Amino acid sequence: MSDKYKVVDQALGKMNLEQKVGQLFTQAFYGSVITPDVVHMIKGLHCGGLRVTQFYRQFRHYARPGQKREAFDKSSPADIPADQFSDIKDTLCKPPYLNIDEYAEVLNRLKEIASERPYDAPLHLCLDQEGDGSADFCRGGVHFFPSQWGLARTGDPDLVYRVAKAVGTQLAAVGFNVIHSPVLDVVLHPDSTYIGTRGFGTNAKFVAEMAKAFVRGFREAGVMCCGKHYPGRGSTDVDDHHDLGAIERSDRQMWDVELYPYRELAEELPMVMIGHSIYPCWDTENVASCSRIIMQDVTRGRLKFKGIITTDSMIMQAIAKKYGGIPQGCLVAAKAGANLVLIKETGAIRDEAYRLVLEAARSGDLPESQIDEQVATTLRWKVDYGLYGDNYMVDPAKAVKTIRSQEMARIEIEAAEMAVHVVRDTAGALPVSGGQRVLCVEQIAGAHLNANDRYAHPGVFWEKMLEWSSNVSGLEIESEPSSDDRVKLLDYMQYYDVIVMTHYSGRSTQSTIKLINEVLAKAGDRKVVVVANSPLPYNTPTEWPTVVCTYSPMPAALSVAARLIYGEFMPAKPATSQPFDP
């Protein structure tokens, strides 16, 4: 082994079995306060890294559209040491607000706590920052970008590269070193609501081309990226957060299409995230994240992938239903060869998963030699990306300057201008004149609530509209419109010439489809303009006559949309077409 990786051998030589087992896990850090339980994850459970979410105080169970988010695991004080147990009302308030420099200090402190362990294994700090409304780091003036689909529709790999580098530069400045992107799924199913605009498109070669530019941008920013959802989930409408599904594709189909981007990037990708679907062409028994056949025979053998294999979050119903519990699934994943097992839970599930894997290691059911290789692979990539170097700790003051720089703002606006476009305007509603009375019906987007600062907050679209006309009223509605929202809108609309309605949709929201349909049915001579974050027909019905697509609910994209609506911006037609286009 090269002298470059001598530090890896030294670290493993100092670890006992308990510490090595801990390194197989990516645990979760929520909010902005380092509690005794967080210290326990780092020093007691010896985690390899933390999945970080800035705007929650603890994990909440994934909810289907219209459902309430509940705690995934009901813990008891009988099971947990006093200073690690907390039963909090996290849905009523967000974590303490920290500015960029303050948050960078928190991430630095997490790394310092890890450095106090008796072995040298730096923490990887990872997150989702996919674009659109996906931003686990969202406060303090961070710049937001369109979804991958929106970037790819420009047909410009250089834009994809520059946006990826900008996102990576922001993340690295505050202390992150891993991003769980890009989404490499080739969208093949017209109702693939799980992937949708998170992916680059419907053609495997096109996806690979865009992904190469994306990976290069993050590599130059010094952030390790992670292709997902391996080996491909673009042909299913089953969401493994809730259900267990099988991808009924042949070996040849998978190799030629779903695996094509991974084949092209096999030597460049530091990490892949393996999903929770069953692939009968390879393994009829286990989901991919728990399949030794898929991890070893397909990924390591045929694909020749030498990077890190991380599971998707194991806190999903697909795992619980298949393996009789989350901890049991974590054990199967570790035995199958996952370098990292991702647990986005902070309760008893986390400790039980660690206990089960440690028990298997002690009994020899999970050989220590296998654990050594799984951990060593991760640590070698940490060497490659500088986690053992001077850039591991960050300068909080410099982070503010980097993130709020004019260059970041310029790229943000450029990306929005290149992505935002008119899907259709068969009603001739555009442009809107300043003399027309406009009602801006704006959802309270989750991403706006998560940030809720002067940069991104509820009502920001109305503010952008007011920059071009004083003849605009605002009606704020819930992300899932309530009956009161409906009553108000149907009453108010009689006083306006144009109704502009947002349609921010995603995997956990039904959004405004029913309400928009009702408004269109009762609009009469009034014009209705829908501002959506996706043009795909499962999401944005083709019957809607006037649709502007932003690929993001964030301020820069909404600013461009407002300019477009008032004729102050002429969008380019998307450079690439997709089979699902109206």
How does this model look, in words?
The chain has helices at residues 6-14, 17-22, 36-44, 100-115, 148-152, 157-174, 204-221, 251-258, 260-265, 292-302, 317-323, 326-336, 348-363, 368-384, 396-403, 406-419, 446-451, 460-466, 483-492, 513-522, 555-565; strands spanning 25-30, 49-53, 124-127, 178-179, 224-230, 271-274, 278-279, 283-287, 308-311, 341-342, 421-425, 438-443, 472-477, 498-503, 527-532, 546-549. It folds into 2 domains: 46-60 and 74-401, TIM Barrel (Alpha-Beta Barrel); 420-565, Glycoside hydrolase family 3 C-terminal domain (Rossmann fold), CATH 3.40.50.1700. The protein contains 21 helices and 16 strands. The mean pLDDT is 92. The chain has an 8-stranded parallel beta sheet with strand order 9-6-5-4-3-2-1-10. Helix 4 (100-115) packs across helix 15, helix 6 (157-174) packs parallel to helix 7 and helix 12 (326-336) crosses helix 13 (348-363). By secondary structure, the chain is α/β, with parallel strands linked by helices. Helix 4 (100-115) links the parallel strand 2 and strand 3.
- Largest sheet data: 8 strands, parallel
Shape estimate:
globular
Q: In the CATH hierarchy, what is the class of the largest domain? A: Alpha Beta
Q: Report the CATH topology name of the largest domain.
A: TIM Barrel
Task: Estimate nothing, just give the exact number of structural domains.
Answer: 2
Mean pLDDT: 92
- The DSSP helix count reads 21
Structural class from helices and strands?
Answer: alpha/beta
CATH superfamily placement of the largest domain? Glycoside hydrolase, family 3, N-terminal domain
Strand order of the largest sheet: 9-6-5-4-3-2-1-10
Regions with pLDDT < 50 over 5+ consecutive residues? none
- Count of β-strands: 16
Radius of gyration: 24 Å
